[in-house]
Specification:
Layout lengths: L1 E2 L2 E5 L2 H6 L1 H11 L7 H13 L3 E8 L4 E11 L6 E10 L5 H17 L4 E4 L4 H9 L14
Parallel strand pairs: 5-6
Antiparallel strand pairs: 1-2, 2-3, 3-4, 4-5
C-alpha cells in the first residue's frame, strides 16, 4: 500500500532473510527482549516468519529507506474460535505523526478483515504506545500483573 511518500510491504520469507538484521534490531527493542532470552526468541521468530506462521510488514520511505517494522501473528481462541490478529514487535526508526499511525492501522485493519479476524490485539507497557493506541480507538481489555521470583 502506498501512502503519500511511504509504502507498506508484507515481506515474503526470502525477503525476511535479507532484512533479518534490521528485523532483529527492531523486535528486540520493541518487545524489550532480555539478553538471556534473545536467542530462543529470535530463533522462534525466524522460524515463524520463514514458515509464514508470523508476518512481517515494513514501511519504506519514498527513497526506499526502512522506516518501521511490524510482526503480526494470528491467534485463535480455543474456546470461542475467534481469530485475533496479534501485533508484535512494532518498531519505528523515526518519530512519526498521528496521521501516519492512522494510515498504518487502517492498512492493518484491512489486512485483519481480509483474514477474517475478529479483533486486533497487542501488549505494551510503553506510555507513548498506549497513547497512540487510544488515539487509534483501541480500548484496554485487561491488565496483567506479575510477581517476579
Amino acid at each position: 500500500m502506498r501512502t503519500n511518500s511511504t509504502i507498506i510491504i508484507r515481506l515474503l520469507p526470502g525477503q525476511v532473510v535479507k532484512l533479518w538484521e534490521a528485523i532483529k534490531y527492531g523486535v528486540i527493542r520493541a518487545d524489550e527482549v532480555k539478553e538471556k532470552d534473545r536467542q530462543v526468541y529470535l530463533n522462534e521468530l525466524l522460524h515463524a516468519l520463514l514458515n509464514e506462521k508470523a508476518q512481517c510488514f515494513i514501511r519504506l520511505s519514498g527513497d526506499r529507506r526502512l522506516l518501521a517494522i511490524l510482526i503480526t501473528r494470528f491467534q485463535v481462541d480455543k474456546i470461542t474460535g475467534n481469530k485475533d490478529l496479534y501485533l508484535q514487535g512494532l518498531y519505528s526508526w523515526e518519530i512519526v505523526n498521528n496521521e501516519i499511525w492512522q494510515r498504518d492501522i487502517d492498512f492493518i485493519k484491512d489486512f485483519a478483515r481480509r483474514e477474517k479476524c475478529n479483533r486486533i490485539t497487542f501488549k505494551s507497557n510503553v506510555p507513548r504506545v498506549m497513547e497512540i493506541a487510544k488515539l487509534l480507538e483501541f480500548k484496554e481489555n485487561l491488565r496483567e500483573f506479575v510477581f517476579d521470583l
